[in-house]
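Check this:
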Amino acid sequence: GLAIRGDKANPKRNIVITNNWTADNDTQSSSRAVIHVAGVQNLTVTGNRQPITSAKLLSDSGTTGTRVVNNNNVAP
């Protein structure tokens, strides 16, 4: 997966994650998301295809500002 973490000493702003594709279905049982972000200002996650059966695409905590998450496909 992908992890992005920002804090006061290391701010992360205007993060865009778009059009990432995985062709293989993930059939492993997991409660963890594919993408983890924390403490980000202005986040866009669009057009990604990550076929997973038992987890979610995005785990997001502490995002401020603009948050756009759409047109993603997680269906196996």
